[in-house]
Design goal:
Structural class: alpha+beta
Number of strands: 4
Protein name: Glutathione S-transferase
Largest sheet: 4 strands, mixed
Keywords: Transferase
GO molecular function: transferase activity
Order of helices and strands: EHEHEEHHHHHHHH
Bound molecules: glutathione
Family: Belongs to the GST superfamily.
Pfam families: GST_C, GST_N
CATH class of the largest domain: Mainly Alpha
Strand order of the largest sheet: 2-1-3-4
């Protein structure tokens, strides 16, 4: 295995910390560059060269001719394929187990993340509150949480009773359920216990604090900070429309 020499371009959002959680869980050293989303740094030509979508996160692997990878899930799989010889997060030699991990990673990528992302828009970013849209988003998020809750019955983690990439990628979004308009997950006891279990993992917790102290914790504990953020993001979105 080549010695990793990686720069992570990120910000402390739910998608951003997915990658720092994976890096920390794999024990890979990395440098961090904070991308100033509020200053639109993500749309600067130098950044669009490494992330044509103009969003965080991105990694650049200097040990592989400055190879860049965008999209959090693609980054996570790249890191496991190149820097997880012990198969800590992604099984290599057991095709069924590997497929199960990837199935749950995709469930997060194409289900949970877009559902919560859309809900964040209606609950936080849009100044006008549309109850129908907000309720409909919460309904879909809860449907997805129900699927996970059922799968976690009698299990500690999503696949093989071991913490894998499936858990690492899903946890940052799900722990932020309140931000996405789902105040409580008490009705999903297995999912709630799973969140609390991952809350105790030191590497994951370290990853949540990259590149800034854990934003979800800050918003949960200080409603005035959440309000401040909402005002900022609403003006940012308004500007984007013009
Ligand atoms: N599917 C992408 C989503 C990335 C994403 O939405 N990033 C947001 C922050 S969570 C962003 O950079 N937003 C800035 C913008 O849209 O201008 C991924 O998983 O990497």
């Amino acid at each position: 295995m080549t010695t990793p020499d990686i720069t992570l371009y990120t910000y402390g959002t739910q998608n951003g910390v997915k990658v720092s959680v994976v890096l920390e869980e794999l024990g890979i050293p990395y440098k961090v560059k904070q991308v100033e989303l509020g200053k639109r740094e993500q749309y600067e030509p130098w950044y669009l060269k490494i992330n044509p979508n103009g969003k965080i996160p991105t990694i650049v692997d200097h040990s592989k001719e400055d190879f860049s990878v965008f999209e959090s899930t693609a980054i996570a799989i790249y890191l496991c394929e190149n820097y997880d010889p012990e198969e800590k997060l992604l099984p290599k030699n057991d095709p069924k187990l590997r497929s199960q991990v990837i199935q749950w990673v995709m469930f997060e990528t194409s289900g949970i993340a877009p559902a919560q992302g859309q809900s964040n828009f209606y609950c936080r970013y849009l100044p006008e509150k549309i109850p129908f849209a907000i309720n409909n988003c919460a309904k879909e998020i809860k449907r997805l949480y129900g699927v996970m809750n059922k799968s976690l019955e009698g299990k500690e983690y999503l696949v093989g009773n071991k913490f894998t990439l499936a858990d690492a990628m899903s946890y940052p979004m799900i722990r932020g359920h309140f931000f996405s308009g789902v105040e409580s997950i008490d009705e999903f006891p297995n999912l709630k216990a799973w969140v609390e279990r991952i809350d105790t993992r030191p590497a994951t917790q370290k990853g949540l604090n990259v590149p800034v102290p854990d934003k979800m914790k800050e918003y949960r504990e200080n409603p005035e900070k959440l309000e401040e953020f909402e005002k900022l993001i609403q003006s940012f979105f308004k500007e984007k429309q013009t």
